[in-house]
Amino acid sequence: MNLSEINWDFNAAGTWPFPLKAAIIFLVSATVLGAGVYLDTRDQLTALESSEKKEQDLKHTFETKQRKAVNLQDYQNQLSQIEASLDEMIRQMPTEEEVASLLVDISQTGLASGLEFKLFKPAAPIAKEFYAELPIKIEVIGDYKELGLFVSGLASLPRIVTIHDVNIAPNNPRSKDIKDGAMLMTATVKTYNESTSGIKTNEKTTKKKGRK
To answer: Beta partners for 189?
Structure first.
């Protein structure tokens, strides 16, 4: 087939040799088919990719929920234990009416241990999520045994009392108000009062009625 002898006028395409007609028809068909597949399939490929990603997310979510479901009873038991511990701690917190007597108890515990108070200064309450800290700055004088009895006595009080920022310094011989052989301890004693924040009034009333 001599290509130079072919009339390339499209209107004369009917006279073209059969191999040429077949080649042109194949190229046109392949172009149209390729364009159609590309234009139609591109969105489908995007949707497929999105579906595959969603499938992975759903599998991960399912596995997470399955693990939680398997351990649901353990979680419920832990939650019950936490709620019981929290309820017990709240019952050990002094009410507003009990704070004054607790301060007296702390002071009496120190005196009963043989300590001499140089400072006993309650500070402003510090609000927390569902309770308030009631810090008390103290300075006491006594020997190690008396200091130990005091700390032990605080721990045995019926309400929660903790001790922080403890500093024990040796006796200053030049200080007349410190007895010989004694130590000076400075610390912050904290007790805790139930706050209305985050706790419903009816729940708080019920818990207070359950106090011993």
So the answer is: 136, 163
The candidate with the shortest Cα–Cα distance to 130, out of 50, 203, 38, is 203
User: Would 84 be classed as within a structural domain?
Assistant: no
DSSP string, 34-79: HHHHHHHHHHHHHHHHHHHHHHHHHHHHHHHHHHHHHTHHHHHHHH
CA Rg, the chain, in Å? 42
pTM of this structure:
0.49
- CA pair distance 33, 204, nearest whole angstrom: 76
Q: What is the DSSP string of 86-129?
A: HHHHHHHSPPHHHHHHHHHHHHHHHHHTT-EEEEEEE---EE-S
Cα distance between residue 113 and residue 151, in whole Å: 9
Number of domains in the chain: 2
Residues 111 and 178 in one domain: yes
**Please, are residues 93 and 192 in contact by the beta-carbon 8 Å criterion?**
yes
Q: Is 75 domain-assigned?
A: no
Residue at 191 is within a domain: yes
Q: Of 21, 38, 70, which residue constitutes the final position of a domain?
A: 70
The pLDDT tens digits for 79-134 are 888 878 777 776 667 666 677 888 888 889 999 988 889 899 988 888 887 778 88
